[in-house]
């Protein structure tokens, strides 16, 4: 099948792609692209719904990691409160000097 073309001053120029309803043309290859995109989307949906069961060792490792992160967060909060208390104390000391 030949691609649609029109003549303009002796040169052939491609026309715009057909509307979505007419995407069966071999020239633009839309049918293959659409089928490939649909298959990729289907594979992604299947991967997203696939379940994975963790074994005991993986569960314990994840729990250890979460507890370590929680410990770091608590340390950051504790240090922040200490710094705020020091600044407050310094401000009070400065006010007493005045």
In words, what does this structure look like?
The protein is mainly alpha-helical. Helices cover 63% and strands 8% of the residues. It is built from two helices and two strands. The protein has a two-stranded antiparallel ribbon. The radius of gyration is 33 Å and the shape is elongated.
The secondary-structure class comes to: mainly alpha
Give the ordered list of helices and strands: EEHH
Overall mean pLDDT stands at 76
Shape by Cα distribution: elongated
End-to-end C-alpha gap: 94 Å
Radius of gyration over C-alpha positions, nearest whole angstrom: 33 Å
* Model regions low in confidence, pLDDT < 50 over at least 5 residues: none
Question: Mind sketching the topology for me?
Answer:
Layout: E1 5-8, E2 11-14, H1 30-49, H2 56-97
Antiparallel strand pairs: 1-2
Which terms would index this structure?
single chain; 98 residues; mainly alpha; two-stranded antiparallel ribbon; 2 strands; elongated
Overview in brief:
The protein is mainly alpha-helical and 98 residues long. The protein is built from two helices and two strands; from the N terminus they run E-E-H-H.
């Amino acid at each position: 099948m030949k691609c649609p073309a029109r003549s303009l001053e002796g040169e052939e120029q491609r026309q715009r792609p057909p509307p979505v309803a007419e995407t069966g043309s071999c020239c633009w290859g839309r049918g293959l692209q659409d089928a490939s995109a649909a298959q990729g989307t289907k594979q992604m949906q299947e991967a997203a719904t696939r379940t994975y069961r963790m074994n005991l060792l993986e569960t314990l490792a994840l729990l250890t990691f979460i507890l370590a992160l929680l410990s770091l967060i608590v340390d950051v909060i504790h240090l922040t409160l200490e710094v705020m208390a020091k600044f407050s104390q310094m401000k009070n000391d400065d006010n007493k000097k005045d």
